[in-house]
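Risk mitigation, structural track. In case the binding assays with oxa(dethia)-CoA fail to produce interpretable data, a predicted complex structure has been prepared as a fallback.
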Amino acid sequence: MRYAAITGWGMHVPERVLTNNDLEEMVATSDDWIVSRTGIRERRLAAPHETATSMAVAAAKQACDRAGIAPQAIELIVVGTFTADQQMPSIACEVHRELGAARAAAFDVNAACTSFMYALIAATQFVRTGMYSTVLVVGVDINSRFIDYTDRGTCVLFGDGAGAVVLQASEEPAGLLSSVLGADGSAGHVLTLGDPEQLAHLNGVSEMPRPYMKMNGSEVFRFAVRIMGDAAAEAIEQAGLTYQDIDALVPHQANMRIIDAAARRIALPREKVWVNVERYGNTSSASVPICLVEAEREGFIRDGMNVVVVAFGGGLTWASGVLRWGPGSVVRERIA
Ligand code: UT7
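Fallback model:
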């Protein structure tokens, strides 16, 4: 059997911090409301000179260094995002250029906040089938460019960031042991960015050059509470494991109450759940890979552990898997 081990990882968050107190000055909200409803205390916002690409490149470089590979070793770059700097070229192609990853194919995946998980699962298939042995996967979103900072229902939730992993072929169980993907297009209207009605309206409003996110928060909340737990449970079952075999949960960081519900569903105590939502808010596609980087750094996830990863997002979409952390026995292939 061939597996896709995670052998490198990296992350980038902008320096600028937007606190709940800052938001109190901008919209009718309070630190108390935000903390009690979401668990978020602050989030990071990109500086004017930063782009989704620059954040993706910073995370990708760290991941390659950590894996000990030169960019020329990468055969495929998959970037998960829904806030690309432009429609074309893709961020994956921009990362390709910036890294000088001359041998690599490159494409973006858009599954809203689930984009990194979709990208990770897609990339894993390329490695497991034998088509590629070394793949770079990035999750990045620059949400602040698409948020209406007069809408208290969305502006308190989101932040910017990027995370990346390198996958390499392994002969031992490593990387994703199971993969669950799902979507419900019939409910897509509850979370949108740039729907036709909004775009038509914005065409006449020059001071609002970009479309912004619109959300029915309580509908998304109900969906998320159900799907995060169900998807996590399905990934464990598909891997042939039981709840007792799970060492850690690394969930998409949207809201503390959603994270708690997911943990309860798979009977995992709070101390086995990685949480950083209080520091970054919802960084969308960057959320899971940033968590993996910080959890590894803190010794929270270690070689041989079974780690459940799970995310949800607009679309609506969801994805989950059980990751066996560690390099396994990586197949070192000769680079032409
Ligand atoms: O990756 C996917 C991204 N989306 C999400 O993860 C969002 C999921 N949803 C949520 O996290 C929650 O629904 C929210 C945090 C957005 C809202 O929490 P809630 O407990 O579902 O509140 P609600 O939407 O039912 O709103 C309750 C009240 C409303 O006021 P009224 O109508 O009862 O007078 C809102 O207008 O809270 C009001 N409200 C706020 N008040 C202070 C909404 N946003 C705010 C705010 N500050 N920032």
